[in-house]
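All the exercises in this workshop are built on plain-text protein records. Instead of coordinates, the fold is spelled out as a row of discrete tokens. Once this layout is familiar, the rest of the handout is easier to follow. The record below serves as our worked example for the rest of this section.
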Amino acid sequence: MLRPAVLGLLLACAATLCSSAVVPEQTVSLLFAQTAGDLNEFPKQGETVVVNPWHYLHRMSMNRLMIASTAPFMGSMGPNPSDGCMWGLPMQLSWLLNSGRLADPTGQTTCGVETEDRMCISPNSWWACQNYFVSAIPFLCAAEQGMLGAGVMVQMENPDGFEEYCTTYADCSAKYPEVVAKWDAFYQGLKASVDSTLPDNEKKDALLGLFWDGQMTSMRTAAVCKAKQSSYSPVETSFANNWMVSAEYVAGARFHFNLDNAVMFAAPMPTRLLKEGDNPPDIADLTTEENHTLTTFSWINSINNALGGTLVNLWHRAMCSVSTREKGRDMMSQLMLNPAFATNTFVSIITEMVINC
């Protein structure tokens, strides 16, 4: 049980981080300087903090505050605030904004359009819907678990006519109890880790396991967003589905998305929506790295489909220990970032790892 005095000190440090910590240089593209560094910067209704997750700066502020509030508990990840495991969330949101994936794909509004209202996040966007489950719900759970301060109450604004989005901790608990339970377990595990006697590599692995349980439960629950894919080209929809499958491999290896890794993995993501006629690896206006990412995602999903879904299962079986997960993280880095890495090598190594588990 975490000692109350220690917990209070850590939460005080978290509050200081929110308001005064030096923001790492790489966060310029995230617009961190324009986001809220303190809950008091959000509007209130009575004692309740009101967040508008349909505005980019509000949604990014949630990510910034979650990173700041969890940083004091992540010593096993590394000595710096940029070493925490939640940096993939703001980097993903930044990529979605800059690639136009938060805009209204139906064309019925100007929400998210570069020349109109770029900071607007459309509730019609599949990408924005999927991201809601890995930003708004974890934030509500962070508040409920005391990560953002004692007794903090938070409510999300919700656009009319969209019932798939929950707005309070109680609402999310009723609609998506498994997601809430996983994120609660993550924050509880963080607090308990302060008193853990495990070696840092094992403590890190355990915390990453809790984080990815929350992340993947959120992403799978975002199947409620599926109908929104009808507003995209078949090529973009295929990429979105391939992207979801690739997350299974990253999660299975309990990948550590500190800031440096998050920047590295975001760099080769496609910088625009895909359209009819785009055929990786030969999309002329995308970089070699972006074409490689699209080709790799497609290959991963096609092989998994050809094997009846068994490649994902095989991968999760292979990730059976701290050491194999460390190897798995290296393999995913090679596969995603090194065009010379042979895909047949990937499959043969997985098979060997399963045998050794």
About this structure: Strands lie at 44-45, 48-51, 153-156. The longest helix spans residues 200-221.
